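Form 7-S
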Amino acid sequence: MIADSVLGAFSRDLAIDLGTANTLVFVKGEGVVLNEPSVVAVKRGPDGRPRVLAVGNEAREMVGKVPGTIETIRPLREGVIADLDVTEAMLRWFIRRVHGRRTFVRPRVVVCIPFGVTEVERRAVREAASSAGAREVYLISEPMAAAIGAGLPVTEPQGNMIVDIGGGTTEVAVISLGGIVTSKSARVAGDAMDEALISWVRRKFNLLIGERTAERIKTTVGNAWPEDDEESIEVSGRDLLSGVPKTVVVTAEGAREALADPVREIVEAIKTTLEITPPELAADIIDKGIVLAGGGGLLRGLDTLLREETGLPVIQAADPLFCVAMGTGASLESLELLRRVAERV
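Output:
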């Protein structure tokens, strides 16, 4: 115990929201110090192992613009590690960038994971963090971290419902007494919305657009419920018939039509979780409502749609994009909370 406290005094402990779309790093005593895309540009050697050329913002700028000898990889898909080697390289880069050489002690690291991951996926996260330089690794489920970051009283004997819509997964959970009572993890979230928009634009206009353009449509005119003053946006891509660049106009109504399927799946995940929630906790949710977190929770009109579908109050967290990182960081700041809500591996 004494040794651990001595190490803690010299260590710069980290909390990592290892997201499909973005990775955020929280430093104990400082807050969120890094928020960059979970993208890595690599050039593989003769042994097949990746040599990292760029990570984060710099790598994202290379997407779709690299020669055949270089790959731009998103090593996490649908909330889980799809490429362990590249994930290790990305984590190592982020940890070294944040931790630097100011201390000689390896950091304690808390990493967020989706609640529904398999044991194999959990082991992959642990190994990636350990290989990247962590002294100790704790895992905390994303819905728990999001609830803590949203300020919900997760350790109290009352029902708290959190819906965390990230890049790869939507995590729905009812939390009480520091544990997850009922939950549903749906592998449909921000990425699925982007893919739905790409498919819709292809069908509607015979136009091929990229992920970044789809994300721009989603954040500019994307919506789940009609609004009084709806906008439109011009987007460019490659015409599939002529092969030349073309510009089209996407309306808010068209974006809503494109996003209907992934939004419906999110609504069904919430309804399924409510159906299996114990009645005592359901009564708390009637009073306190559903809390939306994650970047996907910013989709315009989603809160209105959920209110119509469930009949419950829907509240958006104060800072949806940072909820998971702040909740993970809060557990790092309090050893007692960390022991209650996280698992040391």
